[in-house]
Amino acid sequence: MATHKDRQLVGLKSKVKFDPPDYFDTAIANLSEIIGKDINAIIRKYVVPKFTNECGLKHSELRILTCLSFYEAALTPADISSLLRYDPATVTRAVSLMEKAGFLTRENYVKDTRSVLLELTSKGTILASRYTECTKEILETLEDTLSYTLTREEKISSITLLYKLAERAKKMRQNSKYLSDFDFK
């Protein structure tokens, strides 16, 4: 039986009716959606218009450039689709557009002749860096208005946990094909 202390979640004014670990995945799904919507609303309103007016790229395309800039090695369109949970056709269209605009290049992938490796050009690297810095600056400015901010250690710990949760959710989704074998009550 969960004690009162076990049911007291940080940030909530009152205790919850259930033992939080019992509904961990439901809570994570709800909270991550809320967090994503809030952060994306800020980015779409205050960051994306600056870049859309300048280079014509949409939010999803700017995210693809940023994704490419975060990794040392070149990525395939399938990698990007998996990392950002974008439909492969969306990535293909965006890659074609960004290649024509000179933001990235395609190179044949010797390990898989059906795919290509994507790399940012210097123009793409500069744009991705500017987009990332602008996003960071706006979010940090907003964070400075709060009475409580996360410490560096909390941010590292949180992002590490979020990566683990994302990988866990990805594997759960892959394994969900086996659910048709279960008899649910």
Features:
mainly alpha; single chain; globular; 185 residues
- Order of secondary-structure elements: HHHHHEEHH
Q: In whole angstroms, how far apart are the ends? A: 24 Å
Overall pLDDT confidence: 88
Report the uncertain regions: none
Strand content: 5-15%
The main pleated sheet reads as: 2 strands, antiparallel
Q: Report the count of strand segments.
A: 2
Strands side by side in the biggest sheet: 1-2
Which class of secondary structure composition applies to the elements? mainly alpha
Give Rg in angstroms: 20 Å
Shape, per Cα inertia axes: globular
Helix content: 55-70%
Discrete helix count: 7
Describe this structure in words.
With 185 residues, the protein is mostly helical. It is 60% helix and 5% strand. The chain contains seven helices and two strands, in the order αααααββαα. The chain has helices spanning 24-46, 48-55, 59-70, 77-84, 88-100, 122-144, 152-175; strands at 104-108, 116-120. It has a two-stranded antiparallel ribbon. Strand 1 and strand 2 form a beta hairpin. It starts with 23 loop residues before the first helix and ends in a 10-residue tail after the last helix.
Brief description of this entry?
The chain is mainly α and 185 residues long.
Write the layout of secondary structure elements.
Layout: H1 24-46, H2 48-55, H3 59-70, H4 77-84, H5 88-100, E1 104-108, E2 116-120, H6 122-144, H7 152-175
Antiparallel strand pairs: 1-2
Helix pairs in contact: 3-6, 4-5
